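Dig into this one:

. . .
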Amino acid sequence: MENKTLNTFVEKEAREAEALGISKISNIIQVEVTTINDVIAKYASQIPNFISIDVEGMQMDILYSFDFHKYKPEIFCIETQNSQYEKITAINDFMIEKGYFVCADTYINTIFVLKDRWDNRLLK
């Protein structure tokens, strides 16, 4: 995208941004992608306690594939606004189901904290 902050793996997202006059597609390239679980397994020496997800339209795909049984980060920061400036409420519902609560919300991004870690934070 001309506005690099809107680069995406999802062609539909890019086309919608262009149709809305937000940014133009400047180049289309093929890139190899991997899963978030593989990135953590390969590059993290320990389970991360903070994960930020800002992927222009693929948030739910990443969350659905995330191994919450193997990895339980304390905090997620997730972009929860789509390219039409609408809130993606399914993300909140999903994260609550996984044991997180909304700690802060800027409308664009939401901070989710693992509820049991928060409840036990003073016991450490």
Remarks:
- The mean pLDDT is 90.
- Residues 100 and 124 are 19 Å apart (CA to CA).
- The chain has two domains: 1-33, 36-123.
